[in-house]
Amino acid sequence: MEVALNPIRILKNEAYEEKAEIARLSSFVGAIAIGDLVKSTLGPKGMDKILYSSGRNAGQVEVTNDGATILKAVGVDNPAAKILVDMSRVQDDEVGDGTTSVTVLASELLREAEKLIEKKLHPQTIIAGYRLAADVARDALTKFAQDNSKDEAAFKADLLNIARTTLSSKILCQHKDFFANLAVDAVLRLKGSGELSAIQIIKKSGGVLEDSFLDEGFLLDKRPGVHQPKRIENAKILIANTPMDTDKIKVFGSSIKVDSMAKIADLEMAEKEKMKDKVNKILNHKCNVFINRQLIYNYPEQLFADAGVMAIEHADFDGIERLALVTGGEIVSTFECPDQVKLGSCDLIEQVMIGEDTLIRFSGVALGEACTIVIRGATQQIIDEAERSLHDALCVLAATVKESHIIYGGGCSETLMAVAVSKVATETAGKESIAMESFAHALLQLPTIIADNAGYDSAALVAELRAAHVQGKHSSGLSMDEGKVDCMKKLGITESFVVKRQVLVSATEAAEMILRVDNIIRAAPRKRVQDRGMC
Fold first, then answer.
1. What DSSP designation does 340 have?
2. Is 100 a known active-site residue?
3. Is residue 69 predicted with pLDDT exceeding 80?
4. Is 166 a catalytic residue?
5. Residue 315 to residues 107, 301, 425, Cα–Cα distance (Å)
C-alpha cells in the first residue's frame, strides 16, 4: 500500500523562491527592460522623459534625459533591475556622466548572454569569455587614449571639446559653446584640486539660459538682518551651527505654574539675559560677520545690529561646509574659547541684484578658486535639468583634469574595442571565443542605438564604421549632424577616458553578477508584534 507524502516546506508562508532557468529568465527580463527604458535617451538626438511623481510630492514634474535621475525615480521590484539602478548611481557619483551608457551596455551584455544560454553555453563559460573580452577592450582603449596635458592650450581645447560632447546630449545642446566655456573656466579655477564643492550653483528663475554666468566671488542666497550693515570690508567671519531662538519660551510639552503675570515676565527676562550672554560670547571672537546655519530670532538679531555685526541666518543649510571651505573658517557650536576658533575671512561682503532677487557676494575669499555659477531659465524644470547637465559636465572635466587621457566619441571608442575583441576572439580556442564575439556585438549596440535615436539607417552606418576601424581609421565615428561616418578628431568630438573605462568595467561586472544567479529567494516580511501592555 502506497502512502502519499506531503512535500516538505522549508520557507515561511510568505517567502518563496525562483529556481534555475526561471530565476535566470526573471533576472534577464528585468535588466533588459531597464536598458530598454533609458536607451532612447542615448546620444545627441536622444529624447527626454517626464517624471511625474505621486504620493507625498504628488504633481511634481521633472523633465530629464539623465539616466541616473530617471532610474532613481523609477520604482523597480526586480532584483536584477535594482542592480543596474545602483550601478548607474555609482557611475554618477564616480565620474558624473555615462549613466545611460553603462546601463544600456550592461543590458545588452545580458541580452547576448541570454542567447548563448539558449544555445546551452554554461554561464561560467560566458563569464570567462566576458572577462577576457573586457581585458582586451580595456587594453585597446588605453592604447589609443591620448594625453595633451603637457601642452596647456591643447589640453584646454580638449577640455572644451569634452564639455561640448557631454552637453550635446543634454538640454544645453543649443548653447553648448557658451556653457562649455563656463564649465571649463570654473574647473580650471580649481587648479587641479578637483574640489567641486568650491563651485556653488545657484538657480534663479527668469531670463533665458544664456543669461547664466560665472561669478568669481561666492554668492549666498540670503539677506543680512534688519538694521545691520549691508557692506563690510575685511570681513572676519564666524560660522556657527547653534540655536539662536531661546528668546521664545518653550511651552510645548512643558508645564509652568506661576501665581502672577509678573513671574512670566521674569521668565522672559531670564531667557533674554541668557541669549544676551550667548551673543556677548560670540562678539568676544572679534568677528564682524556672524553666519548661522539655524534661525536667528528677533532679539539676538537686534543685539547684533546694535554691535554693528552682519548676521546671516539659515545660511546654506545643505552646504555650510562649503561656506567654511571657501572662507577658510571653522564651524563652531560653542563659544567658550575664542582663541581656539579659526575665523573665516574675505575682502568684501556686499549685496548684489540678480533678476529681482538680492544676494550676498563674498569677494576675495580665502580659497581663491571658489566661484559661483548662476543658472537662469524660463521655468523651474528647465533650470533643474540645466543644473543636472552642468553638474555632469563639471564632474567629467574634474575627472579629466585628474587623469588627463582623452578618447574620441561618436561610437568611436566602442567600435574600436569591439574590433579589438573580435580579432582576439578569432584567435581564441574554446567556447569562450563565442562569448567574446557576443561581447563585441554588445559594444556595437551603443553606436547602433545612437544612430537609431537620430533616425538614421543604423545597420549601414555601423557596418561602415566597423569597416573603417578594421582598415585602421581609429578616429572614425558617427557624425549625427550629417548622418555619416567621419573623423572625430577633425570634428572635435572628444570624451573622457576615465568615463569610458568606468562604463566598460561597471557594465561588465554588473552583467557578470547577474549571470551568476541561479536562485532568487524572496524573504517573508517581518511581522510587527504589537505591544499588548500589562494585563
1. G
2. yes
3. yes
4. no
5. 44, 14, 59
pLDDT digits (tens, 9 = 90+) for 420-435: 999 999 998 888 999 9
CA distances from 319 to 245, 259, 388, 399 (A): 21, 47, 17, 22
CB atoms within 10 A of CB 441: 18
Instruction: Give DSSP secondary structure letters for 65-82.
Output: --HHHHHHHS----HHHH
The Cα 173–Cα 168 span in angstroms is 4
Residue 261 grid cell:
503675570
DSSP annotation string for 17-85: EEEHHHHHHHHHHHHHHHHHHHGGG-STTPPPEEEE--GGGTT-EEEE--HHHHHHHS----HHHHHHH
Percent of the chain clearing pLDDT 90 (strictly above): 25
Give the pTM.
0.82
> What is the percent of the chain where pLDDT is above 70?
90
DSSP codes joined into one string, 433-467: HHHHHHHHHHHHHHHHHHHHHTTS-HHHHHHHHHH
Domains of the chain: 16-39+77-147+408-522 (1.10.560.10), 151-204+384-403 (no CATH), 218-369 (3.50.7.10)
**Strand extents, DSSP E, 369-423:** 371-377, 405-408
Spacing of C-alpha 121 from chain mean position: 38
Q: Which of 41, 64, 69, 99 is catalytic?
A: 99
Q: What's the pLDDT at 535?
A: 44
Beta bridge partners of 16: 522
Of residues 108, 98, 321, the one with CA closest to residue 196:
321
For this structure, is 415 an active site residue?
no
C-alpha cell at 505: 568595467
Name the one residue in this structure whose C-alpha cell is 536598458. Answer: 35
**CA dist., res. 323 & res. 327, Å (int):** 6
Q: Are 515 and 111 in contact (CB under 8 A)?
A: no
Which positions ≥6 away from 222 have C-beta within 8 Å? 312, 313, 314, 315, 316, 359, 360
CB-based burial of residue 286 (10 Å sphere; 0-12 exposed, 13-18 middle, 19+ buried)? exposed
CB 291 within 8 A of CB 238: yes
Q: Is 531 left (phi over 0), alpha (psi -120 to 50) or beta?
A: beta
From 92, 158, 384, 392, active-site residue? 392
Q: Nearest 5°: phi and psi at 318?
A: -80, -20
Helix (H, G, I), strand (E, B) or coil at 524: coil
Catalytic residue among 41, 64, 69, 100: 100
For the segment 485-505, what is each residue's pLDDT rounded down to a tens digit?
999 888 888 998 999 999 999
Residue 523 belongs to what H/E stretch? Answer: none
The burial class, CB within 10 Å (0-12 / 13-18 / 19+), for 173 is middle
Catalytic, out of 66, 384, 452, 486:
66
Q: Is 66 one of the annotated active-site residues of the chain?
A: yes
* C-alpha cell recorded at residue 138: 580595456
- Residue 108 pLDDT class (50, 70, 90 cuts): very high
The residues facing 51 across adjacent strands are 62
